[in-house]
Write a structure and sequence with these properties.
The chain is mainly alpha-helical and about 850 residues long. The protein folds into five domains: about 350 residues, Na+/H+ antiporter like fold (Up-down Bundle), CATH 1.20.1530.20; about 60 residues; about 160 residues, no CATH class; about 45 residues; about 130 residues, Jelly Rolls (Sandwich). It contains 33 helices and eight strands. Strands 1-8-3-6 form a four-stranded antiparallel sheet. α2 runs parallel beside α13. The radius of gyration is 34 Å and the shape is globular. The chain starts with a helix and ends in an 18-residue tail after the last helix. GO terms for molecular function: potassium:proton antiporter activity; sodium:proton antiporter activity. It is a multi-pass membrane protein. It is found in: Cell membrane. Keywords: Cell membrane, Ion transport, Membrane, Sodium, Sodium transport, Transmembrane, Transmembrane helix, Transport. One of its GO terms (cellular component) is plasma membrane.
């Protein structure tokens, strides 16, 4: 076919795509449904004009449309990697971890159950071999999220519902296509009754090989991008190449799943690139992929729809009955997972609860689309598949996809409305009334000042003020109608607003580059968790999320163990540095939230609620500062380096703002501005690199470096090293309790502790000791000591410590200082001086 004709048709399809989006919005239908209908009508029209004798003028156009070189490889190798890769870049992976059980259940288990359900149902009612029936089951088990998510976004459906469906649709493409490859092989080899055990045994290898390929290529791509940090277009170009190289490399070189490779590459880039690239580059990369995915998704839908008349050619009444079997089996399989297995896992506390309305929406939202049609096309193109099998695969897959798009897609909005998922909760409705009233009052004040400044006509001002005043009066009445909201609900509303403002503040700091790109995802994840915790469980949910933000997780404890037991310090150093930067960023953000409470929250919810929220904010600040103190005591020099880095980054932001203002005011030209910004960019790139944290201080180093042991000879140091016992304590764990016999003195090798004596607390860090006073006084301990960070302590029993005390003047001085501060006679604690015999 002439390249000019192909180009003209593709350009015309882009015009159709451009017109389809506003048409879908006007008809309140999913965009993909409109594309499928338009594509089908174009295909039907082309066939009609070729077969009719009414006119021959449009025959060349019809022949060109039907003769487009549309093959399944175009969908699988060109469009599918684009859609999958963009979906992974746009996902909030940390938020999806909260619902990883239902997502994996729907993405993997539901795919297998649907494949088996459809396969065995078709095998029972039709004459097709079991392998062909299972092949059809794998084709129709993959869902398409675009139509569903577009509806959710247009009606402000719960974010959690959209997140579950997006996660499911991303991962079930991989699972379904992997199963498709397995059963396609059985069909082409002519195996009528495949051994499912062998197929299942091969499945993990496909997954693991694809995941490893995608991970390796993404890590390599990120390293190369980091080298080109001043060349954004080069970085964007590398990101465009990555999914295609991952897909082809896994499929052709490794023999694994290309879909899994693309998903793994996208997830790896999502997790690692924000910390290695400039924030604006990462934003531009995601925007670029949004545009590419929009075009790819629209083209794959409309081009696949052009094939529908061809795939449905020769359909019989019995085929319609078989389509009904596929529909019933697929929906039944999905219902078993959603209303059987998922509630069971919730009862077993293996999965977070998914509300019944959510499950109904997920059940009816399992739309099939372009991927299903592309896989069916791949079967019809294979010369090694029997003709009858190809015919039935094309008809059943296409018929089922059309049913889901037309029957389910057009009614999904109505179903969501019936479930009440498109309506605000009573609390949110009350909040919206309060917000409107406060906002209009602020607007009235601003408008009043504006009209005075510009000396506008009094009659016009009076007329508009009257109109605006009536609107304000109605808003105040609506707000007063909901004035009987319980304080508990007002606190929940205030916390939701506070978490939302915290998220906006974080985004502003990231844009200003005060917070590094490395930390952006973590602090945004915390804000999202606070927001959802407040929505779901009010004050308790918010406080639980706040405590989790400063707690040491399992991965951190594992890295501590690897450092202490195996001497592998790299993981602990990186995680400790991340925690340092995260806590500093969080401290900066929390300091800015008090003004929001005093302003907006107090005006909307009153003084009592504002004071309570301020108290909760102060507790969060205390938690963060306690965690920071633990790190500062442990690594004082590193905390200073990070704080200096923050000051330098802030200065660079202010410097950039001044240069921009001078350019806008015409004080400097474009050439001078460009030169200044290039110099600024070079200095900013240097500040992006975080200082390295050195945590490799081992026991022998500690013994040598501690000032307390500075006056000991080598032999004594050696004996001391043998006498010290290593003790590991987690954050929050009690080391010593009150009123217990004192038998041990502790030296802090790493970490920090908090000592509470007589209602007063003090914090000790690396290199300091505790427990010596009670031991020397032969009394029970008066202090309670708790670790405020994962700590490694060196314990020394009573007798070795008393011998050490006799030899070390530095330790004697330390004991004497503490005794004086506590009002104790130090001579009662220290050993009597040795007296030399007279000669």
């Amino acid at each position: 076919m002439d390249i000019v004709i192909i180009t003209t048709i593709i350009a015309s399809l882009f015009l159709v795509i451009g017109a389809a989006e506003p048409l879908a919005a006007r008809l309140r239908l999913p965009f993909s449904v409109i594309l499928a209908v338009v594509g089908t009508l174009i295909g039907v029209g082309a066939i009609f004009f070729l077969q009719t004798e009414l006119t021959d003028a449009l025959n060349p156009v019809a022949e060109a449309i039907l003769g487009l070189p549309i093959r399944s490889n175009v969908f699988l190798y060109v469009f599918l990697p684009t859609l999958l890769f963009q979906a992974t870049l746009g996902m909030n992976l940390r938020r999806m971890l909260d619902d990883w059980v239902p997502i994996l259940l729907l993405a993997v288990v539901a795919v297998v159950v649907a494949t088996l359900s459809v396969g065995y149902a078709l095998s029972y009612v039709s004459g097709l071999p079991l392998a062909a029936c299972l092949l059809i089951g794998s084709i129709v088990s993959t869902t398409d999220p675009s139509a569903v998510v577009s509806i959710f976004r247009s009606i402000s459906a719960p974010q959690r519902l959209a997140r579950i469906i997006e996660g499911e649709s991303l991962l079930n493409d991989a699972a379904a296509i992997a199963l498709f490859g397995l059963f396609m092989g059985f069909v082409m080899l002519g195996v009528p009754d495949p051994q499912l055990g062998g197929a299942v045994a091969r499945f993990p290898m496909l997954i693991a090989g694809g995941a490893f390929t995608g991970w390796v290529l993404a890590r390599l791509a990120v390293r190369v991008m980091a080298l080109f940090n001043q060349h954004e277009l080069a970085q964007l170009s590398i990101s465009v190449a990555l999914p295609y190289l991952a897909y082809i490399g896994a499929e052709q070189s490794v023999g694994a799943s290309g879909v899994i490779a693309v998903v793994a590459a996208g997830l790896t880039l999502n997790l690692t690139a924000p910390g290695r690239l400039q924030p604006q580059t990462w934003t531009n990369m995601r925007e670029l992929w949004d545009v590419l995915a929009h075009w790819a998704g629209a083209l794959i839908f409309i081009l696949a729809a052009l094939l529908i008349p061809r795939l449905l050619g020769g359909i019989h009444l019995t085929d319609v009955a078989l389509i009904g079997v596929v529909v019933l089996a697929a929906i039944a399989a999905r219902a078993v997972i959603l209303f059987g297995l998922l509630p069971l896992l919730t009862l077993m506390r293996a999965s977070p609860a998914v509300e019944r309305p959510y499950r109904v929406a997920i059940l009816w939202g399992g739309l099939r689309g372009a991927v299903t049609l592309a896989l069916a096309l791949a079967v019809t193109e294979s010369f090694r598949v029997p003709d009858e099998t190809k015919r039935l695969v094309g008809i059943l897959a296409t018929g089922f996809a059309l049913f889901t798009l037309i029957a389910q897609g057009t009614t999904l909005r109505w179903i969501i409305g019936r479930l009440g998922l498109d309506r605000l909760s009573p609390i949110d409705e009350a909040l919206s009334r309060q917000v409107v009233a406060v906002a209009l009052q602020t607007v009235r004040e601003e408008v009043s000042r504006t009209t005075e400044n510009y000396e506008l006509s009094r009659d016009i001002v009076r007329s508009e003020a009257k109109h605006f005043g009536s609107r304000l009066d109605n808003a105040v009445k609506n707000a007063e109608a909901s004035a009987n909201i319980l304080d508990r609900d007002r606190i929940t509303l205030g916390l939701i607003s506070l978490a939302g403002h915290e998220r906006d503040t974080i985004l502003a700091r990231v844009h200003e580059r005060t917070i590094s790109a490395r930390m952006a995802e973590q602090v945004l994840f915390l804000a999202d968790r606070l927001l959802e915790g407040a929505r779901a469980q009010g004050r308790s949910g918010y406080q639980r999320a706040a405590r989790r933000s400063v707690a040491y997780g399992a991965s951190f404890r594992l890295s501590v163990m690897m450092n202490n037991r195996l001497g592998m310090s790299g993981f602990l150093a990186r995680m400790t540095a991340d925690r340092f930067e995260f806590l500093l960023s969080q401290q900066l953000i929390l300091r800015d939230l008090g003004k929001f409470i005093d302003g907006r929250i107090r005006r909307i919810h009153g003084r009592r609620v504002a004071d309570l929220l301020q108290e909760m904010l102060n507790r969060r600040i205390d938690l963060v500062e306690t965690a920071l103190d633990g790190l500062r005591l442990q690594y004082p020099g590193y905390a200073e380096e990070l704080e200096r880095r923050f000051i330098r980054r802030t200065a660079l932001r202010l410097e950039e703002r001044e240069y921009t203002a001078m350019r806008d005011d015409g004080l400097i030209g474009a050439e001078v501005f460009t030169t200044l910004m290039q110099d600024l960019a070079a200095r900013r790139a240097a500040e992006e690199k975080r200082p390295k944290l050195d945590i490799a201080l081992r026991r022998t180093d500690l013994v040598r470096r501690l000032p307390l042991f500075a006056d000991l000879d080598a032999a004594t140091l050696k004996r001391l090293g043998r006498a010290l016992r290593t003790t590991y304590v987690d954050a929050g764990e009690t080391v010593t309790r009150k009123n217990r016999p004192a038998k041990t003195v502790y030296f802090i090798e790493s970490g920090a502790v908090e000592v509470e004596v007589g209602g007063q607390t003090r914090r000790l860090g690396r290199g300091e000791m505790f427990g010596q006073m009670a031991l020397l006084a032969n009394k029970a301990t008066r202090a309670e000591v708790k670790a405020i960070a994962p700590s490694t302590l060196l314990a020394l029993d009573e007798m070795p410590f008393r011998r050490l005390l006799k030899r070390s003047k530095a330790i004697q001085a330390a004991v004497r200082d503490i005794a004086v501060k506590r009002g104790i006679d130090p001579e009662t604690l220290l050993p009597a001086p040795n007296k030399k015999k007279a000669s």
